[in-house]
Design brief:
alpha+beta, 2 domains, 24% strand
């Protein structure tokens, strides 16, 4: 091979070498730019994904009372987030971040955003419904309280009316007196006494007022005399001298039957003491009863 041929070969090799260097240099630059583009896109997608999840976790934390109602939706969002995390991990600097993979990742993040938006919307709807229900319950509660108060007032008014009717149907006395007396000398007539050791008769007088509400008929007026020792003056036992009041037996001293026709009338009850009844000094209280109700009271005093 002559010198001229050798030079041509050398020149050709040099040209090929230079071309190869240029080619590999361009290829390396393009690969670097591609990796940088992938990393940038990955960071943008990662930032968007993190923002979506941060807002979601904040909403979830602030509305923990509704966790049970949204457990299924939480599971769906958690699954979506796991898939996105996997795709982000694959977008590494080894060149796997292809446009197709990036497009798929963008769509997945978009779907996640839609799921989170629906989550918030349904949550707000549920909260609004609960608030409306709460307001309605408050109104019902107020209505119930008002009804209860009205019923209690009506009950009270009815009880008051019933009491008034009961009071109206009760005999009422006026000018009630009780006088301690002893027999005059010779046994003819009675005279007033203030001495306990001379008392033989207690004379009780009263005026029964007119009342056209009380049922007419025979009325038994009971007189109960109690001494300063709270013992009832009585010529017999409590079993022999008792009447019913409020469902319980009460001992009485004397009684008198009268005919009541609704008009006013006078009643007199005389109680004569037996020898075995002990009378002491002090204040004696006299109470009258009729139809199981108290109709008047008075008192008198005795000295020794």
């Amino acid at each position: 091979m002559n010198t001229r041929s050798t030079k041509k070969i050398v020149m050709l090799l040099c040209t090929l070498f230079v071309s190869a260097n240029v080619f590999f240099s361009c290829s390396g630059q393009q690969a670097k730019e591609q990796l940088e583009k992938v990393e940038k896109e990955k960071m943008e997608l990662q930032t968007r994904f993190d923002s979506i999840m941060l807002n979601y976790e904040k909403v979830k934390s602030e509305n923990s009372l509704y966790a049970e109602q949204f457990s299924e939706k939480d599971s769906v969002i958690a699954a979506q987030a796991a898939r996105i995390n996997g795709l982000l991990a694959e977008m590494s600097s080894n060149g796997t971040g292809t446009p197709t993979r990036a497009s798929k990742l963008r769509q997945q993040i978009k779907d996640l955003q839609t799921s989170c938006d629906n989550y918030v919307q349904e949550l707000e709807t549920l909260k609004a419904e609960n608030e409306a229900l709460k307001a309605e319950n408050e109104q019902i509660k107020v209505a119930i309280e008002e009804t209860k108060a009205a019923n209690e007032k009506l009950t009270s008014e009815n009880q008051t009316l019933e009491q008034k009717i009961a009071n109206a149907k009760r005999l009422v006395t006026s000018d009630l007196t009780a006088t301690a007396m002893r027999k005059k000398c010779g046994g003819k007539g009675l005279k007033i006494t203030k001495h306990s050791n001379k008392l033989e008769v207690v004379k009780i007088e009263a005026r029964i007022l007119a009342n056209d509400v009380v049922d007419p008929g025979t009325k038994t007026i009971y007189a109960r005399i109690t001494g300063p020792n709270n013992r009832v003056l009585c010529n017999g036992t409590a079993e022999e001298f008792s009447f019913d009041i409020d469902g319980s037996p009460m001992q009485y001293t004397a009684k008198q039957d009268i005919e009541f026709d609704g008009s006013a009338r006078k009643v007199i009850i005389n109680w004569s003491k037996n020898d075995n009844v002990n009378v002491i000094k002090g204040t004696y209280r006299v109470t009258l009863y009729a139809d199981g109700q108290e109709i008047g009271k008075t008192s008198f005093k005795l000295t020794k």
